[in-house]
Amino acid sequence: MYRIAIVEDTQEAAVQLKTMLLRYAGENGLALEILEYRNAVTFLTNYPANFDIVFMDIEMPYLNGLEGAAKLREIDRSTLLIFATKLGHMAAKGYEVEAFDFVVKPIHYDSLKLKLKRAFNRLEQKQANNISFLSEGTRVRMSSSSIRYIEVSDHQLIYHTGEGDYPVYGTMAKVREQLEPLGFSLCNNCYLVNLRYVKAVRKYTVLVGDTELQISRPRRKTFLEALSNYIGG
User: Which of 69, 108, 122, 199 could disulfide-link 97, Cβ–Cβ 3.0 to 4.6 Å?
Assistant: First the structure.
């Protein structure tokens, strides 16, 4: 199941795009969950950071698409961002916010499906980052990007995600081996942090989403180096 957001202030344009997406899904055997938002402010409020693709109109009230995309990148660096615009020259600015692609309105299906093919090929590559674990007797499978941080608590691991917390029996050493190549780093021996959710670093604390975690003195240098490499790479 792929999750797609359409951020478009015009209902007619949103319906047209959704229809094309469902047509592509039907032709290629894909399962899609598509959510619509009428402006970037609504979209970004309580943003769950679990969309695979975001289609963002550039010309919108309150917050235009470029401004909205800049704010989106502050909290989600990995979703595939595709701009929709009547102004082709404006789309070039999208690369400043790491846009994956853009489509020019009015959107034509033959053009869109070529871009969708590229997007879903990229997503298939990203699915190599999926992990699974057993939590309270239930097998859970999710993208590593959904995990905000993992905490050691009372001889258990707790996976803190946007969908809730999952207690898991295991060792931090094993989890580090699996997740550090995917953009995670220890800020101290109790917390393994997904660097995509880091909002700010103070002297010995890090803001992960809305949660402030302690950075230990021995781990601080290595953690900041990992964060710098993640942002730069």
Answer: 69
